[in-house]
Amino acid sequence: MNRLKIFISSVQSEFASERQMLFEYISTDALLGRFFEPFIFEMLPAKDVSASMAYLEQVQRCDVYIGIFGRDYGSENSKGLSPTELEFDRASELHKIRLIFILNYPEHLRHPKEKRLIQKAENVVVRKKFNDAYELKTAVYVALVNLLEEKELIRTAPFDASLCKDASMDDIDTERIRWFVHTGQRKRGFPLSPDEESEKILTHLNLLKNGKPTNAAILLFGKQPQRFFITSEVRCALFYGYEVEKPIPSYQVYKGDVFQLVDQAVDFVMTKIDVFVGDRSQSVDAPVIYEIPRSAITEAIVNAVAHRDYTSNGSVQVMLFRNRLEVWNPGQLPFQLTIEKLREAHGSFPANPLLAEPMYLAGYIERMGTGIPDMIKACQQAGLKEPEFAQNETFTSIIWRKEQVTEQATEQVTQQVTQQVTQQVTQQVKNLVLIIEDEMTRDELQEKLQLKDRENFRKLYILEALENGFIEMTKPDKPTSPEQKYRLTEKGRQLLIQLKQK
């Protein structure tokens, strides 16, 4: 087969040694040398044609453009453009595969035109930062191997399809498989029965290899996924201010399968943000409206869990600040997508296809690449600023909170922290008191609050409200009765009056 031609572009004087290093590395590497033929302009013989025209001809002939951007902009032509920018523009015009690597450098020391070039590149392609030649070499290697895999020029098994070392069917939770089948039948018409053997269901989902579970099988249905993948946990934190700083008022590390991780992390956020209860002018039930739509929170967290890099030592982090929600995901966008393309309907390019398919069947994700546009729309309809996204060493989703809400929330938090009161009321109990009507079952209350984690709901809402006398059981002598309901006490009704006056 013909090797793919790579054009390596940079300011010559700034990255002369790095360019030569990459040329030699790609040419001589046992894997990369089989598939790629690198070019640097030092290879061109002296001739009459102008250097800039010769370089642009090489860009036209290449399959892959590698741009190395740093401090300097380089020499400029009569129009004020450097060879590096001309080469990038030509690669963009010809729709070449573009891989951009940016030197970590103080922004105020970069040439202004170099900063604009970097911004131009960031708007259309994913870039990777590096600190030294070794990091650059490693980043280029990873990018080129990923490219080979995407083009199916090499067929090493991806992470989710690989066998989970030391795992067996004994590590699979059959009850979680039954839950999945019931959910999949309801959400997407999953064809198999919950009574089928677990092996048959996993085989149908392509989650077994020679009768043994793959990595995806353990992440989806494992009894203890973190025993095999310790960093697959999700870390959630609440901060009163705008930055990560101590003290941390609330911090949780969630473990479990990917469905449990999503539900627990979403519920963590939902229990920490404000909820508003409307009137019954348009329906029998008073609407419950959270300051951030649940769908937007879920989309950000599901994306992080489903599309993260599970070979990374990092974990998904969910951080709620005074003015925003941030979700960090140790992973990279696929080459087909950029930050700008995320904002519009796009093709679906899951990082972990065997993980994503069951999450789709259970109704956690979509296949059509509409999740981010739907998130943006939900936030706009809620009167929030448009979410922001960033790709660095991690992929970050930022959902903004309303300023007036965050100010109010901060005042409430400050009061809880500083006032000397005999009894503090948690946000969870306040939310429960706000939505309870007459007598309601636990399931009705949980559904109205849009929460999924039953155990957290029981501890943080029901038990907390019962122990502090804000609600009571309708059948106190039979606490586990299937007919059990809950209602406000006189103390709860007084709290409700106070909450509605705020």
How would you describe what is shown here?
The chain has 502 residues and is α/β, with parallel strands linked by helices. It has 4 domains: 4-150, Rossmann fold; 159-228, no CATH class; 231-402, Heat Shock Protein 90 (2-Layer Sandwich), CATH 3.30.565.60; 420-501, Arc Repressor Mutant, subunit A (Orthogonal Bundle), CATH 1.10.10. It has helices at 16-28, 32-35, 51-61, 83-93, 112-122, 133-150, 174-188, 198-204, 215-221, 225-228, 258-270, 294-307, 339-342, 353-361, 371-381, 403-418, 427-435, 442-448, 454-467, 490-501, and strands spanning 4-10, 36-39, 64-69, 97-103, 127-130, 208-209, 212-213, 234-238, 250-254, 275-277, 288-290, 316-320, 324-329, 388-391, 395-400, 471-473, 486-488. The strands form 5 sheets. The protein has a 6-stranded mixed sheet with strand order 9-8-12-13-15-14, covered by helices on one side. It has a 5-stranded parallel sheet with strand order 2-1-3-4-5, with helices on both faces. A two-stranded antiparallel ribbon has the order 6-7. Strand 6 (208-209) and strand 7 (212-213) form a beta hairpin. Helix 11 packs antiparallel against helix 12 (294-307), helix 12 runs antiparallel to helix 15 and helix 17 (427-435) packs across helix 19 (454-467). The longest helix has 18 residues, at 133-150. The protein is globular. 33% of the residues are buried.
